[in-house]
Amino acid sequence: MKKENKHEDMLTEYDFSQGIRGKYARQYEEGANIVKIDPDLLDYFPDQKSVNEALRSLVAIIKKYEKIQQ
To answer: Domain extents for the chain?
Structure first.
């Protein structure tokens, strides 16, 4: 007899009987830097490299602005 599916978004075909609870918990605690990009920005920032380049450019602008303010 199969267990009743308590979660609507979980398919009955999913089988976690051999799963290990917390297998990646320590790795996640050590540093998970996952950022979700809104769909309207994906055309401009399709991958990690494009996001990092944009942020580095922004940091350079901020540093210049901070020097001007001093």
So the answer is: 37-69
For the whole model, what pTM was predicted?
Answer: 0.51
SS3 20: coil
15-50 tens-digit pLDDT = 888 999 999 888 887 876 778 899 999 999 999 899
**Cβ neighbours for 54, distance < 8 A, ≥ 6 positions apart:** 45
Helix (H, G, I), strand (E, B) or coil at 36: coil
The contacts found for 16-21 with CB under 8 angstroms, 24 or more apart, are none
- Cα 64 to Cα 70: distance, rounded to the nearest angstrom: 10
CB contact at 8 A, 20 and 29 = no
Distance CA 70, CA 67 (A): 5
The answer, yes or no, to whether residue 1 has pLDDT greater than 60, is no
